[in-house]
From TrEMBL, chains A, B:
This is TetR family transcriptional regulator. One of its GO terms (molecular function) is transcription cis-regulatory region binding. Keywords: DNA-binding. Residues 8-68 form the HTH tetR-type domain. It comes from the Bacteria. InterPro entries: DNA-bd_HTH_TetR-type_CS (IPR023772), Homeodomain-like_sf (IPR009057), HTH-type_TetR-like_transc_reg (IPR050109), HTH_TetR (IPR001647), MftR_C (IPR041347). It comes from Stackebrandtia albiflava. Pfam families: TetR_C_14, TetR_N. The keyword DNA-binding applies. Residues 31-50 bind DNA. SUPFAM superfamilies: Homeodomain-like (SSF46689). PANTHER family: HTH-TYPE TRANSCRIPTIONAL REGULATOR PKSA, HTH-TYPE TRANSCRIPTIONAL REGULATOR RUTR.
Amino acid sequence: MVGVSGRARTRRLLSAAALSLFAENGYDSTTVDQIAAAAGVARRTFFRYFPTKEDAVFPDHDSTLVKVSLVLEAEGDGEEPITVVCRAIREVLRMYAAEAEVSVARYRLLRQVPALREREIAVVSRYERLFTKYLLAHPSASASPDSPDAPLMAEVSAAAVVAAHNHVLRRWLRGGGTGDAMAQLDHALRAVRDGLVDPRRRMSDRRVVVTVTQAGSGVDEVLDAVRHALN
Amino acid sequence: MVGVSGRARTRRLLSAAALSLFAENGYDSTTVDQIAAAAGVARRTFFRYFPTKEDAVFPDHDSTLVKVSLVLEAEGDGEEPITVVCRAIREVLRMYAAEAEVSVARYRLLRQVPALREREIAVVSRYERLFTKYLLAHPSASASPDSPDAPLMAEVSAAAVVAAHNHVLRRWLRGGGTGDAMAQLDHALRAVRDGLVDPRRRMSDRRVVVTVTQAGSGVDEVLDAVRHALN
């Protein structure tokens, strides 16, 4: 009997064998039998881990989806829902960054095999749907809760966060998986979030300060009055 | 010899036959031979139109991609690039709306067949890539052209526009393809674009008007002064 960590190890072994055979001999000409043999297991064992050959290329998305869900469920009190989503998507990049070499090899493979590229697009769309669902269930405190555009903005915000993640991920993979991917993601998410927070809220942050001083006041007196008004 | 319109007709016929057989007998148990027979053509004719069985479900995306490209190339002078993208994506919704009944039948089929759903996600991602490329090549007049975040914002903006389109499309399909889809899209795009235009530009639209009137002025005098300042 194989324990949980044994299962995880076999899964990883099969995935590594698949990736290296695909890169060596091409995706189409590699069979499940060859992958199983390279990993030292039987053909039927392969299918206990992955329903198809192409699934072996993406072994970690299922467990990452669980991690992402946990972050969403553990939302902090009074936080903007979009902030929680930004924290949750860090789990996805963390998964890629944890094995930079494997991620870069997979990226190169995907650029050559359209079927795998399409599969990844579909896999990544699962995160987007999860975020949309979360944002729908947790309207922003700054938005009018029964705005008819709330479902629209939930979907658009989720798409924007995922696009920012994908942009950072792709740049990092193109660069060979070097550099601090997480820091780059945080920068990108800040830039995007600034554009996603309800505009009315942002407007209300633009307060206008009016100070009234006596005609004939000196510059210092005026500056003092302004400083006082700003504090 | 079959002319261009004959080709288009055969293509449409094959697609309609495929959709109706998939709905009737299930996607997996329908063969290309059955589709060809239902459309009154030979099996090898089918493959002259579609490389695979699943491609017959999406007959119009290739030509719509061409239409979208044409709109992007015909950009108006001095228009914000994001405005041009919003106009271009109308071509995609127009394609669905042109045959509401077929679109609704396909939508119902896709909800039952994950492989087809994934295929559609991949197809739609082609529009997003096209928009990202266009926005990268046409930086917004209101953004600093060499901002290091320009590529990020191009990708995020393209994703936001496509998400708005997908939201409107799905709502319209769920509603059975009734109602003015194009008007709903225009509304959604306006809402999204407001959030995507450079925030600094939006800020500069929030002018502050200060009017100075004599102490003891009547209400009418004050209102006159304000009106004057606003014009």
